[in-house]
Amino acid sequence: QVQLTQSGGGLVQTGDSLTLSCTTSGGTYSRYAMAWFRQSPGNEREFVAAVGWSGGAPYIADSKRGRFTVSRDYDRKNVVYLQMNNVFLEDTAIYYCAAYGTPESVPLCEYCEHEYKYWGQGTQVTVSS
Q1: What angle do CA 67, 46, 39 make, to 5 degrees?
Q2: Which one of 55, 62, 63, 84 has the lowest number of neighbouring Cβ atoms within 10 Å?
Q3: What is residue 106's three-state secondary structure?
């Protein structure tokens, strides 16, 4: 059974930077296309970023481009990061990492929740002024 374990997050101030990480374990393969989503109170879960199973083709949601980056650890391909820079109050949310169901494959829709089979436990990011 594939498991995703998240770390990072917490309380930060506007303009700060922080990094979230997500580690895949338990499967036969360690390389899955990965994505980050977030959900703030009263809102639906929204796409944040995605990265291919080999670490290529990083894709950031338009509204976060320029502040957020997504990457895969160069050596440990089963670890994916979400780097958040210059955070805003509206970045406050629970952040989830997710893995596509088939290893070493590409989802048809990188920003679509239904493409992702495995989910992390979520990590809270709170931005204060």
Answers
A1: 95
A2: 62
A3: coil
**pLDDT tens digits, the chain, 129 residues: what are they?**
899 999 999 999 999 999 999 999 887 766 899 999 999 999 999 999 999 988 778 999 999 999 999 999 877 778 999 999 999 999 999 999 999 999 889 999 999 999 999 999 999 999 999
Structure tokens at 71: 């990457």
- Cβ atoms of 111 and 59 within 8 Å: the answer is yes
70 contact partners, CB below 8 Å, separation of at least 6: 34, 36, 48, 49, 50, 51, 58, 59, 60, 80, 81, 82, 83
What would the two tokens of residue 118 be? Answer: 């495995």
Whose CA is closest to 46, among 105, 98, 117, 106?
Answer: 98
